[in-house]
Amino acid sequence: MRNIFCQEIIKAFEKKPFVFLSGDLGFKALEPLQEKLADHFINAGISEQNMVSTAAGIAKTGLEVFVYSIAPFIYARPFEQIRNDICLHNLPVTLVGNGGGYGYGVMGATHHAIEDYGSLLCLQNMQAFVPVFACDVACAITRIREIKKPSYLRLGLAEKLDGIDEVAYGAWRKMLKGKLGTLIMTGAISGKLLKEFQKESENNRPNIWILSEIPLSEKLPDELLCDIAETQKLCVLEEHVAQGGVGQILAAKLLTSAVAVKTFVHLHAQGYVSGFYGSQNFHCAESGLSKDAVINALK
Question: What is the Cα–Cα distance from 83 to 200, expressed in whole angstroms?
Answer without folding.
Answer: 44
